[in-house]
UniProtKB/TrEMBL annotation:
The lineage of its organism: Bacteria, Pseudomonadati, Pseudomonadota, Betaproteobacteria, Burkholderiales. It comes from Duganella zoogloeoides. It is a multi-pass membrane protein. This is Oligopeptide:H+ symporter. The chain crosses the membrane at residues 41-60, 66-85, 92-112, 118-138, 159-179, 185-204, 241-259, 265-286, 307-325, 360-381, 393-415, 427-449, 461-480, 500-522. PANTHER family: OLIGOPEPTIDE TRANSPORTER-RELATED. Its main location: membrane.
Length: 533
């Protein structure tokens, strides 16, 4: 009987959990401690130490600019890491070597605590290393599963996300204290040690992993099919898709040249704007002519490209969420700096919560909400006839992030009115934003892997992370926009402070996109792209 039951389990996708998973989970916990340990003290360090040479009235905007530029880099380099892994080195080798660059970046932060060029170089190395491995570890987890145990993958993706927040929680609590009491070299050095441990643990499991080899040059790859679709000629017909892509290329060049010249914005904003324009116009152009690739490429390859284009629309509609989420480490810390933090007592230990430590609320709530959702909320929803599909969860998460910013904006209104506001009022927006994060981010990892065609999993996860780059681009654009006299004059006419206006603006941005996401979700057809046993 046990043999029959086992056969049923395997056929149903409920086979045993891969024994190599603990190495990947432990690696991720240490790596996330290292990343969030340095990221969560970056804004306080910039404001209190590195940017003291900047006049006080400009220091906050510059700190936010540096922080979000760094985040843009972190989530841009997955494109490079995914491409190298898929085409040349495989996921394991790419993760290992990028991890060593990551460790070197941490070392630079600890060494160059008072040298702005050395410190920024370290941030660049971390962005390069962290970004390079970011999509691959997730895809590497998915590679350990096949059709016999694919149903275990959702639990492992949840555990993967849980361990991320386990590391983030302790980093958020400890690093601000270490920065205050022991200085930047110790506070940035400890995350470097944790990243070195993460690399060692990942290396120790090398003989147990399933290693999916990089794809050989494929005449039916995404780029090949897209290029054919744009360039293919049909007698008696024009090439409107190619024209659209060409217009996009011209607009991108204009943006790259004009934005730094005529607007108060730097190269990062110009480059990312140009990238978004090229992707948007290019993908739309390919979709207009995709059927022309039939006969030149296999039907499976053409439908794979069509699937990727549909996934990218989902990713694009999620970008406003990242605009709101990543500002908890910049805008929300700046707000907390101006709030009252009452003294607390725990087991006879008196302490005052530091503004940066409020970020610990996010990971501890994630660790509670993931099992609560799986054990209580989702089964309850199914029992009453509501199926919590991935798209429904992500759409609800975007809307909740908008509500969190309405809450934080209301707090700002009271502060602007001169009220003394306790830092604990931020608990409500943190709770709303965290619930939104669980519904968007944890679900999105599983969605991205399951929907991606086999040869494109690394790249499609890179596009998932590129959504965070675009989300942080919106933040830089808004921050640059409020420096414009016309915009600042309009904000003043509303009676709101600049901070409050931006908070409500971002809330509205997210809520509008949540509505658009819900509309698109009704048309999206889910697929199953887990590999066969």
């Amino acid at each position: 009987m046990s043999s029959n039951a086992s056969t049923v389990d395997i056929k149903d996708g409920n086979g045993p959990l891969p024994r190599q998973i603990p190495y990947i989970i432990a690696n991720e916990g240490c790596e996330r401690f290292s990343f969030y340990g340095m990221r969560n003290i970056l804004t306080p360090f910039l404001l209190s130490t590195l940017l003291l040479f900047i006049p006080a009235e400009y220091r906050t905007n510059e700190a936010k600019h540096v922080f979000h530029t760094f985040v843009i880099g972190v989530y841009f380099f997955p494109l490079l890491g995914g491409w190298l892994a898929d085409r040349y080195f495989g996921k394991y080798n790419t993760v290992f070597w990028f991890s060593l660059i990551y460790v070197a970046g941490h070392a630079c932060l600890a060494i160059f605590e008072h040298n702005i060029n050395g410190f920024y170089f370290g941030l660049g190395l971390i962005a390069f290393g962290s970004g390079g491995i970011k999509p691959l570890v997730v895809a590497f987890v998915g590679d350990q599963f096949d059709q016999t145990n694919k149903n275990r993958a959702r639990l492992v993706f949840d555990a993967f996300y849980w361990i991320i927040n386990f590391g983030s929680f302790f980093a958020s609590l400890l690093m601000p204290v270490l920065l205050r009491d022991y200085g930047p070299s110790v506070a940035f050095g400890i995350p470097g040690i944790l990243m070195a441990i993460a690399t060692l643990v990942f290396w120790m499991g090398r003989k147990k992993y399933v290693h999916v080899p990089p794809a050989a040059p494929n005449p039916d790859s995404f780029s090949s099919v897209a290029r054919t679709a744009l360039l293919a000629r049909v007698a008696g017909q024009s090439r409107p898709g190619l024209m659209v892509a060409g217009v996009g290329a011209m607009v991108a060049v204009i943006a790259l040249l004009a934005i730094p010249l005529y607007f108060d914005a730097g190269f990062v904003i110009a480059f990312c704007t140009a990238l978004v324009v090229v992707l948007a116009f290019g993908c739309f152009g390919v979709s207009m002519q995709l059927d022309r690739a039939h006969g030149i490429h296999t039907a499976e390859a053409v439908e794979g490209v069509r699937s990727v284009l549909r996934i990218l629309i989902v990713f694009a509609l999620i970008t406003p969420f990242w605009s709101l989420f990543d500002q908890k480490a910049s805008t929300w810390i700046v707000q907390a700096n101006a709030m009252n933090s009452p003294q607390l007592s725990l087991f006879g230990w008196d302490f005052t919560l530091l503004p940066a430590q409020m970020q610990a609320i996010n990971p501890i709530l994630v660790m509670l909400l993931i099992p609560l959702n799986n054990v209580v909320l989702y089964p309850l929803m199914r029992a009453i006839g509501i199926n919590p599909t991935p798209l429904r969860r992500m759409g609800a998460g975007i809307a909740l992030s908008g509500l969190s910013w309405i809450a934080v904006g209301a707090i700002q209104l009271n502060m602007d009115a001169g009220d003394k506001v306790s830092i604990f009022w931020q608990l409500l927006p943190y709770a709303l934003l965290t619930l939104g994060e669980v519904l968007v981010s944890a679900t999105g990892l599983e969605f991205a892997y399951s929907q991606a065609p086999k040869p494109m999993k690394g790249i499609i996860l890179s596009f998932w992370y590129l959504g965070t780059t675009i989300g942080n681009l919106w933040v830089l654009i808004v921050n640059a926009g409020v420096k414009n006299d016309t915009v600042s004059g309009h904000i003043a006419s509303t009676g709101l402070s600049e901070s409050a206006f931006q908070m409500f603006f971002f809330a509205g941005f997210a809520l509008v996109c949540a509505g658009l996401f819900a509309l698109y979700a009704t048309r999206y057809k889910m697929v199953d792209n887990y590999r066969k046993a």
